[in-house]
Amino acid sequence: MTIGFHSEQNSVNVLEISGYAFGYLSSIFYLSSRFPQLYKNFKRQSTEGTSYLLFALAMLGNGTYGLSLIVILPALKSSKSVFILNHLAWLIGSLGVLFLDFFVSFYLK
Fold first, then answer.
1. Average pLDDT of 11-29?
2. What is the rounded distance in angstroms from the CA atom of residue 93 to the CA atom of residue 25?
3. Nearest to 66 by CA among 35, 19, 30
């Protein structure tokens, strides 16, 4: 019985670690998605052809998502630092892309 429990616990740990690994991988891909547009705008010294609505909606979506994770902190009964660590990949993805989108937005002429 103990062996089965230990094996079940290991599979849960592997799944949890896999979920976090995919979360960080997703965050890297998501953050990387803005660099081609930033580079293109910089090289052309123009934002012609850039969809302003796309970036405005993406900024609103990323801002509200990041804010939703932060706003819940005061209501948590469990450890706030554990909550942040568990959601760090998604916070980096949403707030990091929001930060990069500000560069695209401020570069708009």
1. 87
2. 10
3. 30
